[in-house]
Amino acid sequence: MSASVSDLDTGRSLLAIDERIVLPTASIGKILLLIEVSARLSEREASAYGILDKTARDAVGRSGLWQHLQAPALPVADLATLVGATSDNLATNVLLRQVGLQAVRERTESLGLLRTALLDLVRDTRGPDDAPQLSVGSTAELAWLFGALARGEVVDSLTSSRVLGWLSLGSDLSMVASAFGLDPLAHRGTDHGILLVNKTGTDAGVRSEAGVVRGPRAAVAYAVSVQFRDHGIAARLRVRDALHTVGLDLLEYLH
User: Fold this and answer.
1) CB 64 within 8 A of CB 197
2) Given Cys at both, which of 16, 137, 178, 233 links 116, Cβ 3.0 to 4.6 Å?
3) pTM score > 0.85 for this model?
4) Which CATH code for domain 2-254?
5) Where is the Beta-lactamase class A catalytic domain (predicted)?
């Protein structure tokens, strides 16, 4: 387990548990793709305003809605919205085909992130020649990244706010955010004094979440990653309970 929590207003570290080790973070790495897409929109690159087709080589299952929709093509910004809202795997692959994994890596490095990376496109199965994980990261860097987004410091304020807007639609509140009592499908505004933007990552033996949350008394940037032996439902439930407990501790600080 790795965790990092800091006060968003003062920068003071509130929790640090092996926060610099690198762990698999599953879909959390899609944030890096969204940052690159948003930066291109801010720079008014023509390719960032195109309409992209889904193709057979982009096909992938599991999370997301586009694979279940009839629309054969969508605008870039709509694809980013799907990634933010449902961690859409198909939309992720189509955007990656458009912007290129190398561009995402270069943008990541330009932000000073050394232990956090999007390693590959999304695959239903990973072979010996594929990256072993979709993404990896340290919780120290992920908490910093969300704090920087909240302060408008990732590329520029417009790029940062656009990424936060996409992520604010996120519908997975099953981990740390489960403690906040929010509506998973509608929490873009303040609810009982709580305002949340987060991103989760889920894979076999991996549960990870990073975000920013503001309450009546304070605001924090946080990241928690757990890698575990996924040998049964009991193991998953123990991890879920641990993440929920972290959320309760955050809630106590915020209120």
Assistant:
1) no
2) 137
3) yes
4) 3.40.710.10
5) 3-226
